[in-house]
C-alpha cells in the first residue's frame, strides 16, 4: 500500500474546545487509512497585510505556507459567524494565497464540513467558503455535502460521534473525500 495522503485540516474556530475542532477530530478518526490528516493551527497567524509581504515576512506566515505547500489536499471544518466563515479562517486563506501567483492552495483537492448547534449546519459559511475556494482554483468535493447541525449534541465524552447515523455519514464522507483526492490528484 502506498503512503497515506498528507491532508491539512484547517479548523475555522480557534477556541481550544470549539465544537468545530471536536468535530474535526471525530471525522479524522473515521478517515480511511489512505489519508493522514493533521490539524494545522491558524491562531498565531498575524492578520494579512501586504506591507508585511514587502518587509520581513512574519515567521508564522512562512511556517504556515511551508506546511500547506506539503499538503496534498485540504479539509476545512468551520462554524458560521454572521453567515460567513470566522475571521481566523479567512485570514489563513489570505495568508496562504499571497503573494499573488504563489498560492499554497492552487489546484489542491478540498473538502468542507460546516457545523453549528442550530439546524442549518452553517450552510452560509459553507457556501461563502466555496466561493473563495473557486477563486483559489481548488477542486472542492461537491457530494456529499456536509452541513452538520446540532453539533453540540453529537460528540460524546471520548470525542467520538455519538449518533450512529451521523457517524455513518461521517465515515462515508471521509471515504468520498479520499476517492475525490485520488480522482483529482492521482499519484
Properties at a glance:
6 strands, 39% helix, alpha/beta, 187 residues, Rossmann fold, 17% strand
CATH architecture: 3-Layer(aba) Sandwich
Helix fraction by DSSP (H/I, runs of at least 4): 25-40%
Question: Biggest β-sheet: count, sense, barrel?
Answer: 6 strands, parallel
The number of distinct β-strands equals: 6
CA radius of gyration? 16 Å
Class in CATH? Alpha Beta
Summed up, the helix count is: 6
Mean pLDDT: 96
Structural class by SSE content = alpha/beta
Low-confidence runs of at least 5 consecutive residues:
none
Shape by Cα distribution: globular
Instruction: Give the full name of the CATH homologous superfamily.
Output: Flavodoxin domain
> How far is the N terminus from the C terminus?
13 Å
The SSE string, one letter per element, is EHEHHEHEHEEH
Into how many domains do the coordinates divide?
Answer: 1
The CATH topology: Rossmann fold
Strand content: 15-25%
Amino acid at each position: 500500500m502506498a503512503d497515506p495522503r498528507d491532508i491539512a485540516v484547517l479548523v475555522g474556530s480557534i477556541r481550544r474546545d470549539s465544537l468545530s475542532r471536536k468535530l474535526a477530530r471525530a471525522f479524522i478518526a473515521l478517515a480511511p487509512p489512505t489519508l493522514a490528516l493533521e490539524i494545522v493551527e491558524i491562531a498565531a497567524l498575524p492578520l494579512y497585510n501586504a506591507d508585511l509581504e514587502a518587509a520581513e515576512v512574519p515567521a508564522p506566515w512562512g511556517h504556515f505556507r511551508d506546511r500547506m505547500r506539503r499538503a496534498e489536499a485540504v479539509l476545512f471544518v468551520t462554524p458560521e459567524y454572521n453567515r460567513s466563515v470566522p475571521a481566523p479562517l479567512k485570514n489563513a486563506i489570505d495568508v496562504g494565497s499571497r503573494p499573488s501567483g504563489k498560492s499554497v492552495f492552487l489546484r489542491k483537492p478540498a473538502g468542507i464540513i460546516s457545523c453549528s448547534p442550530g439546524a442549518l449546519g452553517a450552510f452560509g459559511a459553507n457556501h461563502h467558503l466555496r466561493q473563495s475556494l473557486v477563486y483559489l482554483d481548488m477542486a472542492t468535493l461537491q457530494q456529499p455535502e456536509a452541513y452538520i447541525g446540532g453539533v453540540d449534541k453529537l460528540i460524546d465524552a471520548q470525542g467520538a460521534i455519538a449518533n450512529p447515523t451521523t457517524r455513518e455519514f461521517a465515515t462515508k464522507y471521509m471515504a468520498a473525500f479520499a476517492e475525490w483526492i485520488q480522482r483529482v490528484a492521482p499519484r
